[in-house]
């Protein structure tokens, strides 16, 4: 199960990297178009879609790599039992919020498809297409938070590498 979950997070990370490159490509096409006097319809919109896809698909990957910003002022002062209780509470709350975020983003994509909602930009892209990346990213983030909650609940968290703690948490 661990391999499958890690593969899911890595796949989302690779897709995020792909969409980051696509953001660069679309911005580059837009700049080249202005420089060489040609026009490609929708470059700004496609760059925005790619940037949003990159951001949402990277959420779970960065969470699992310990790269999300955390404020540990209270956790540093808490004893081991209180620290564990606070960690469990925070992962449970984050899991609930991620579940709501996933449900509503999937619902938004479905409604955009059902109502045939299109972009108001000059590309007229059906909005459910770029919203799929947002939906996928939020669903994978929910899975990652469930994974983190289970790891914390079971007490099977691996200790961080030496010196890694200070670089990953604020």
Description:
This protein has 170 residues and is mainly α. It has one domain. 76% of the residues lie in helices and 0% in strands. It is built from 6 helices and no strands. The mean pLDDT is 88.
Topology, element by element:
Blueprint: H1 2-36, H2 43-64, H3 73-77, H4 80-114, H5 128-154, H6 164-168
The number of strands is 0
The major β-sheet equals:
none
Q: What value does the average pLDDT take?
A: 88
**Overall 3D form:** elongated
Low-pLDDT runs: none
| Percent strand | under 5%
This entry's quaternary arrangement is single chain
The N- and C-terminal alpha carbons lie at a distance of 31 Å
User: How many helices does DSSP assign?
Assistant: 6
When the domains are counted, the total is 1
Q: Whole-number radius of gyration?
A: 20 Å
One letter per element, helices H and strands E, the order comes to HHHHHH
Helix/strand structural class? mainly alpha
Provide the helix percentage: over 70%
């Amino acid at each position: 199960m661990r391999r499958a979950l890690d593969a899911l997070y890595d796949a989302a990370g690779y897709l995020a990297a792909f969409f980051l490159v696509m953001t660069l490509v679309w911005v580059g096409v837009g700049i080249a178009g202005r420089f060489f006097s040609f026009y490609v319809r929708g470059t700004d919109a496609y760059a925005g879609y790619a940037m949003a896809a990159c951001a949402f698909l990277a959420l779970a990957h960065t969470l699992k790599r310990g790269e999300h910003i955390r404020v540990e002022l209270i956790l540093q002062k808490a004893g081991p039992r209180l620290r564990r209780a606070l960690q469990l509470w925070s992962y449970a709350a984050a899991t609930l919020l991620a579940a709501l975020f996933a449900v509503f983003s999937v619902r938004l994509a479905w409604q955009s498809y059902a109502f045939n909602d299109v972009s108001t930009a000059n590309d007229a892209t059906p909005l459910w297409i770029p919203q799929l990346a947002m939906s996928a990213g939020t669903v994978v983030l929910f899975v990652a938070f469930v994974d983190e909650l289970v790891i914390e609940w079971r007490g099977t968290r691996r200790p961080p590498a030496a010196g890694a703690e200070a670089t990953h948490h604020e």
